[in-house]
Design brief:
Layout lengths: L2 E5 L2 E3 L5 E8 L7 E7 L6 E6 L11 E3 L7 E6 L4 E6 L8 E8 L16 E2 L3 E5 L2
Parallel strand pairs: 2-11
Antiparallel strand pairs: 1-3, 3-8, 4-5, 4-9, 5-6, 7-8, 9-10, 9-11
């Protein structure tokens, strides 16, 4: 059974940092494209960033970020741990949301932001609250 489990959410102050983890079971994360998404109360789900599979590019995977998080959020992969991370720095109140990771089998060399409908496998989500 293919499963994704997020962890690492919690409460942070504005300007603070959190690192979210997305651990997989039943498949190898280096073989799939991973997207990070978030949904705030009353808002639609939005793509935060994505990373291609490891073999998609010489660098080991290319990333794409939403303008709202570019320069503050970083997606990385630890193949040995079969885990993808979302490092979030300089957090803002407007980053408050439930964050999800999702996976899809896609061979593309780049990934594009979306609402996530093309992703087949989803984690349960983890709450991130940024507040003073």
């Amino acid at each position: 059974q293919l499963q994704l489990v997020e962890s690492g959410g919690g409460l942070a102050q504005p300007g603070g940092s959190l690192r979210l983890s997305c651990a997989a079971s039943g498949f190898t994360l280096s073989d799939v494209m991973i997207g990070w998404f978030r949904q705030a109360p009353g808002k639609e789900r939005e793509g935060v960033g994505c990373i291609t599979r490891t073999g998609a590019s010489p660098s080991g995977g290319s990333t794409t970020y939403a303008d709202s998080v570019k320069g503050r959020f970083t997606i990385s992969r630890d193949n040995a741990e079969n885990t993808v991370y979302l490092e979030m720095n300089s957090l803002k109140v407007e980053d408050t949301a439930v964050y999800y990771c999702a996976a899809r089998f896609a061979p593309f060399q780049t990934c594009a932001l979306s609402s996530g409908n093309e992703y087949a496998y989803w984690g349960q989500g983890t709450q991130v609250t940024v507040s003073s």
